[in-house]
Inverse folding.
C-alpha cells in the first residue's frame, strides 16, 4: 500500500484545490441527453443496484438480439459468475445483421483514415457501411472456416489499425472462434508467448503497417515468432497451422508454401453467405493479454452476452450516442479500449466509428485536429498522455482547425491531471463539451466509473460516480468499507455482466490476483480516494503494474526481459512520475561480474527489452549499480528505489536494509 499512502496525498490536494469547481452539464446538452439530470441518474442507479437481476435482465432482453432467450439472469458463487444462463446469441449478428433491414444498412459503420505517406499528402480513406461490413465479415468468416477454424478455436490477430482488424475480430465471433488481438507494437517474442499460452491455431497478420512514415514489419515478426523455441527445444508456436496475410504495405515478405496464405486471394474462394453461429451466453469471446505483477502476462477472458451488453450500454449512455454522431475513439484495437469502444460498443449501437491508422503527430502535430475537421467528428475519446503531448506541442495546432463539430470529449487509461483536463475542456472542447473521465480496466470489459454527460456535474481529475449496476467501494487492509473523505483500495462489491471470467489456463492466478485481497469482492489493483460528494478519484495502481503513456506494463515483465540479457545479473524496475507519460520506467541493473557498465550497454539493454516485449516497455532510464537495496530476507526494496528514481529524499524506515551504502551509490549511479 506504500504507493497509495504517498499518492493519496496528491488526490487529496487535487480535491482540495480551490480552482477546481464543479462543472454542471450545460442545459442544452442535458435537454437532448439520454440521462438528463443527476436526479434521473440517481433514481436509475438506485434501482439498478437494489434489484440487479431485474435491471440487467431487462437490459439484456431489450438491448441484445437472442437466438434463444436466457432463463436465468445470474448465477454467482464468488469468484465465478455466469450471466444470462441458457441463452444463445451471436456478437457479430448483434453488431451487423441487426442493422441490415433498417435505415442503418447504408450508414457508415467504419470511417477509416490511413496514415498519409508524407507531409501535404492526404491519407488514404475508406467508408464502410453496415451492409458492406456485414459482407466483408461473412466472407472472411468463410475463409476461417475453409481453413478448419471451428467454434472455440483460438485465433491470434496481429494487424495494424486497418478496417480488416475489425473484420477479423467480427469474423471470429461469427463462427464462435476466440480471438486474441496482439498490439502491433509488440515483439515476435510476445507473439510467440501468446500463441503458446492460448494454443492458437491461426495468426492473422499483414505484410506490414505504416507508422510515422515507415513500415512496421508485422509478417517478419510473425516469421520470427514461429521460429522461437521453448525450453523443450520445440517451437513455442507449434500449434499454428495457418497464417493469413493482409496486403497493406506491399513490402517484400516471405510466404511459406502450405502455411501462409494471402487474405485477398482467399476471398476468391468463398461466398458472402455465412449464417452467424448461435453461441451460449457464456461461450468464450476473446482473450486479451495484459500485464500483471509477475513476469508473465495474463490472458483475460471475456465471454459473449455479458461483455456485449456492457460494451453496448456504456457506449450509449457514457458517450450519449445519437444516430448522427461521428464517434472517434483513438485507441488501438490491440488494447481493450479498442475492443469495446472502437469495435463492439459502437457497432452494437449502429453508430459510425472512426478508425485512424497512424500517429497523432505524423506528419505534423495537428493530425488529430485535421481529422476532426475533415469528418466533422462529434465525440472524441482519447488518453491523458496524448492530451499532455498536445499541450506541449502548443495551442497553435488545434487552433488552425475548425473543431466546432465536437460535442463531447472522453478520457481513459490513467488519472487525468486537472491542468490537462482544463486544457482539453478549453482548447479542444471550446468550453462547451462535457468531459467524461472514464475509469475501467481490461478485466472489467466496459466503463465502470464515469460521469454521464447530461447528468453528472464534473470536477477535473475525478471519474465521478459509478455506472448503472456497478458497486465500487474503497476498503482498508482488512476489507472494511471506508466512508467518504478517505482513501483506500478500490474494490467492486457486486458482479457485473462484462466482468472477466478468468485468466486463460490459470484458474489459480485468477483467484489470487482478483479475489483474495478482499474476500468476496473483485479487487481492482487501484488505490482510490472518495471525496465528500462520493466522487471517486483514482490514485493509480497499488501493485507492481505501471501505467506508462496509458499502457499497462508490469515491472516484473520488464525485469525478466532485462534478466534474460547475458550481461545482466539482476534488475529491478520502478516507476517515476513523468510529465508526459504519467509514469516513466526506471531500471536499476546489476551486471554479471567482469562486465563493465558503459553507455552503449544501456542502449543495448533498452533494445533488448524492445525485442522481448515491445518498444512501449523500453526503460526510459537505466541505472547501473553494484547491488540493489534489499531487506535482510532478500526482498528488493522497491519503495526506496521509487524514491531514488524520482529524485526525492529517502524517507521512511531503512532499518531492514541489508547494506545501507548501496543507497548512496544508487542515488548517484549514472554509468
Ligand atoms: C488505469 C484501460 C484513472 C487504472 C481501460 C486501471 C485509470 C488501469 C482510468 C487499467 C481513469 C484507466 N482514471 N486511472 N479514467 N482509466 N485507469 O487494463 O490504473 O489498460 O487499473 O484498461 O488503467 O488499464 P487497462
Amino acid at each position: 500500500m506504500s504507493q497509495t499512502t504517498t499518492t493519496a496525498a496528491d488526490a487529496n490536494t487535487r480535491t482540495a484545490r480551490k480552482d477546481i469547481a464543479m462543472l454542471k452539464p450545460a442545459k442544452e446538452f442535458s435537454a437532448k441527453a439520454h440521462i438528463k439530470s443527476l436526479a434521473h441518474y440517481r433514481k436509475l442507479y438506485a434501482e439498478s443496484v437494489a434489484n440487479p437481476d431485474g435491471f440487467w435482465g431487462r437490459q439484456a432482453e431489450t438491448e441484445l438480439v437472442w437466438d434463444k432467450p436466457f432463463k436465468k439472469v445470474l448465477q454467482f458463487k464468488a469468484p465465478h459468475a455466469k450471466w444470462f444462463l441458457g441463452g444463445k446469441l451471436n456478437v457479430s449478428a448483434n453488431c451487423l445483421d441487426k442493422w441490415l433491414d433498417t435505415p442503418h444498412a447504408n450508414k457508415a459503420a467504419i470511417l477509416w483514415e490511413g496514415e498519409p505517406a508524407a507531409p501535404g499528402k492526404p491519407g488514404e480513406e475508406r467508408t464502410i457501411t453496415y451492409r458492406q461490413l456485414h459482407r466483408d465479415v461473412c466472407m472472411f468468416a468463410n475463409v476461417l472456416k475453409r481453413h478448419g477454424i471451428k467454434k472455440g478455436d483460438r485465433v491470434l490477430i496481429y494487424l495494424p489499425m486497418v478496417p480488416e482488424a475489425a473484420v477479423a475480430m467480427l469474423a471470429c465471433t461469427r463462427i464462435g472462434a476466440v480471438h486474441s488481438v496482439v498490439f502491433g507494437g509488440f515483439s515476435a517474442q510476445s507473439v510467440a508467448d501468446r500463441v503458446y499460452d492460448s494454443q492458437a491455431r491461426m495468426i492473422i497478420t499483414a505484410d506490414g503497417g505504416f507508422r510515422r512514415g515507415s513500415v512496421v514489419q508485422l509478417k517478419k515478426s510473425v516469421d520470427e515468432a514461429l521460429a522461437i523455441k521453448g525450453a523443450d527445444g520445440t517451437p513455442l508456436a507449434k500449434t499454428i497451422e495457418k497464417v493469413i496475410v493482409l496486403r497493406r504495405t506491399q513490402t517484400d515478405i516471405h510466404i511459406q508454401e502450405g502455411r501462409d496464405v494471402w487474405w485477398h486471394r482467399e476471398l476468391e474462394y468463398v461466398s458472402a453467405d455465412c449464417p452467424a453461429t448461435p453461441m451460449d451466453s457464456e461461450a468464450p469471446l476473446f482473450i486479451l493479454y495484459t500485464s500483471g505483477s509477475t513476469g508473465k502476462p495474463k490472458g483475460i477472458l471475456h465471454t459473449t452476452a455479458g461483455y456485449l451488453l456492457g460494451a453496448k450500454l456504456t457506449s450509449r449512455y457514457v458517450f450519449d450516442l445519437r444516430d448522427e454522431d461521428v464517434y472517434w475513439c483513438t485507441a488501438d484495437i490491440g488494447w481493450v479500449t479498442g475492443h469495446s469502444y472502437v469495435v463492439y460498443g459502437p457497432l452494437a449501437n449502429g453508430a459510425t466509428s472512426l478508425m485512424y491508422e497512424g500517429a497523432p503527430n505524423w506528419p505534423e502535430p495537428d493530425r488529430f485536429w485535421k481529422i476532426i475537421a475533415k469528418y466533422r467528428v462529434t465525440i472524441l475519446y482519447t488518453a491523458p498522455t496524448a492530451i499532455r503531448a498536445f499541450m506541449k506541442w502548443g495551442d497553435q495546432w488545434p487552433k488552425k482547425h475548425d473543431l466546432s463539430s465536437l460535442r463531447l470529449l472522453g478520457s481513459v487509461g490513467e488519472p487525468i491531471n486537472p491542468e490537462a483536463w482544463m486544457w482539453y475542456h478549453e482548447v479542444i472542447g471550446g468550453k462547451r463539451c462535457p468531459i467524461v473521465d472514464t475509469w475501467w480496466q481490461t478485466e472489467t470489459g466496459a466503463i465502470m466509473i464515469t460521469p454521464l454527460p447530461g447528468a453528472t456535474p464534473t470536477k477535473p481529475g475525478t471519474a465521478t460516480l459509478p455506472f448503472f449496476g456497478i458497486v465500487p467501494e474503497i476498503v482498508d487492509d482488512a476489507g472494511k468499507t471506508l466512508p467518504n473523505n478517505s482513501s483506500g483500495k478500490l474494490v467492486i462489491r457486486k458482479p457485473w455482466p462484462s466482468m472477466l471470467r478468468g485468466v486463460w489456463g490459470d484458474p489459480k492466478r485468477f483467484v489470487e490476483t482478483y479475489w483474495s485481497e478482499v474476500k468476496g469482492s473483485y479487487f481492482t489493483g487501484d488505490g482510490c480516494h472518495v471525496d465528500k460528494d462520493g466522487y471517486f478519484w483514482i490514485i493509480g495502481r497499488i501493485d507492481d503494474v505501471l501505467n506508462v503513456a496509458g499502457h499497462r506494463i508490469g515491472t516484473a515483465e520488464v525485469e525478466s526481459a532485462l534478466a534474460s540479457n547475458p550481461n545482466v545479473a539482476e534488475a529491478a524496475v520502478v516507476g517515476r512520475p513523468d510529465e508526459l507519460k504519467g509514469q516513466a520506467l526506471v531500471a536499476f541493473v546489476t551486471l554479471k561480474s567482469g562486465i563493465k557498465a558503459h553507455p552503449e550497454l544501456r542502449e543495448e539493454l533498452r533494445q533488448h527489452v524492445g525485442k522481448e516485449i515491445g518498444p512501449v516497455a523500453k526503460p526510459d532510464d537505466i541505472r547501473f549499480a553494484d547491488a540493489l537495496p534489499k531487506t535482510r530476507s532478500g526482498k528488493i526494496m522497491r519503495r526506496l528505489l521509487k524514491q531514488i528514481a524520482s529524485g526525492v529524499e529517502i524517507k521512511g524506515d531503512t532499518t531492514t536494509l541489508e547494506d545501507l551504502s548501496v543507497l548512496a551509490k544508487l542515488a548517484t549511479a549514472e554509468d
Summary: The radius of gyration is 24 Å. The CA atoms of residues 384 and 416 lie 5 Å apart. The first strand starts at residue 72 and ends at 77. The chain is about 30% helix and 25% strand.
